Amino acid sequence: MKIQGQAAIVTGGGSGLGAATARALAAAGAKVAVFDVNAQAAQAVAADIGGVAVVCDVTDPAGATTAIATARAAHGAARVLVNCAGIGVAKRILGRDGPQPLEDFARVVQVNLIGSFNMLRLASADMATLDPLEDGERGVVVSTASVAAFEGQVGQAAYAASKGGIAALTLPAARELAQFGIRVLAVAPGLFLTPMMHNLPEEVQASLGASIPFPKRLGKPEEFADLVAHCVANPALNGEVIRLDGALRLPP
Ligand code: NAD
């Protein structure tokens, strides 16, 4: 799909990979709605790219419905949804305080997996009402999984399960929504330099970067955004979970 002129929603667009994606889509001529639970962050990015900021907690069905309506009023129904909102939590199953509380696990799954699915189902309902473009295409959804979906580390059971869920739903969603002209994809990033990583000491960042076979550094958010833009633009891509990790394989 030609990005120029399309309305797009980027969740988690106030920071990191989502902010870079919002910038890249805007640079390619999209009308971008920056969705984030953090109003200030969303506003800062939206102001920078001439988009609209929409406060949205992706886990809230009613709130997300209202947020999508707000974006629709500003730009028309979105043909592009990029799910970047997510949280990362490191917690051992058997920690010092006993078994991992179920609420911890549920919260990560709620935001990362159920939040992404909530946005997918609501945004695709809107896309299905639009006139078809070339090849009958009406829209595209790109969600953010993680290499943890395939090779989760110690402390990542909840995170890996949430990202594995995103990876697993990509193919059935693509098959099911094809009849409406909607493509569904996921990108599974390895290690990227975002605020999640800025919290780590520089030497830890450097050693994590060095563990990546090529390019031997942490990924840049713009590199993730570039792949998302390619996913939007290339109609031949559908149902794929694309690893973007520099061939990273961390030991357990
Ligand atoms: P980040 O913390 O910089 O950005 C995440 C954004 O999501 C924040 O602006 C936050 O406010 C927003 N958010 C959190 N919960 C939300 C909710 N309930 N509703 C709406 N917005 C919410 O993180 P990032 O590194 O840019 O990560 C973006 C995505 O990429 C996440 O899904 C993350 O799991 C995934 N990911 C990141 C990396 C990495 O190395 N940075 C690797 C693999 C996957």
Your description of this structure?
The protein has about 250 residues and is α/β, with parallel strands linked by helices. The protein has helices at about 15-25, 40-50, 60-75, 100-125, 150, 155-175, 195-200, 200-210, 220-235; strands at about 5-10, 30-35, 50-55, 80-85, 95, 100, 140-145, 180-190, 240-245. The protein has one domain (about 5-190, about 220-240): NAD(P)-binding Rossmann-like Domain (Rossmann fold), CATH 3.40.50. It is built from 9 helices and 9 strands. Strand 2, helix 2 and strand 3 (about 50-55) form a beta-alpha-beta unit. Helix 1 (about 15-25) packs parallel to helix 2 (about 40-50), helix 1 crosses helix 9 (about 220-235) and helix 3 (about 60-75) packs parallel to helix 4 (about 100-125). The longest helix has 26 residues, at about 100-125. The termini are far apart.
